[in-house]
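seq as requested:
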Amino acid sequence: MSARLQPGFDHVVRHPLFGVQCRDAVDGRVVADGLRVRLHDRWRPGGWTADLAANRSGVFALHAAPGLHGFDAAGAAVPGPPSEPARWRLEIEDTRGRYLPVAAEPTLPLDDLFGVGAGAAPTSPPDALPFVPLYSAPTRPLPAAMQALHVELRRAADVEAPAAWTRLELWLGTQRLAEGLAGADGQALLVFPMPKPREVPLGVSPAAAGDRFEWSVELRAFRAAAIAVPEAVLPTLAALLAQPPAVLLDAESPPMPAAPFALRAGVPLVARGATAPYLTVAD
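struct tokens:
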């Protein structure tokens, strides 16, 4: 005897196998428009790829895959043999050129939303669900009322080679203004809100205190020497965010640590060396 669903009383519950929400690393807003989100199964002969679509909350979800489906409650993920590569590879691409591409290796099924570096967006709501941050591409239009830093990075051991996928942080004293990544070509764009005007010390005239809308900022680099090998494969975002500190150098002879830069309100900052239009990262 088969049972029928009773309208208004019974409903089918379909648990997604995977879900991911993307947020702008600058302002923490949810981004879904213009994104191409794909999930690859690398264990299947010939491979298998699913193009994920976003729901009204900006979550890209997967409900079914060969050998897996979402009508059962999500169970614990079964890890593969240590010798095997990660089964699933997530790739996120912005078709509008605003953000750098993202790669990750999630484990399916997943009970919660997938996230990497949760909390990377400083203005995200404190109760935000796990998410994947999207970092600005050099081709991103500058949002209104925002400052920008442009920089080209090359390897100190070979100045003809870009220091691809270097992570960068911009600091004003003890305040981190921005975080970003250099792309495969070593070009990076950091976008951040305008700092507060500098305070004039008591007893010092404004004229003697200098421009209140000029700040001395420090650029810091984080890079693993082997992160871009092989260069044709985009490293995972988790690997990029876990890179160790690296020395940022002025490309002069002999190389010297890069000095702080002068940031001025309303003027995009181009960080460059004293004798070259780029900075180098020590290997």
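The radius of gyration is 23 Å.
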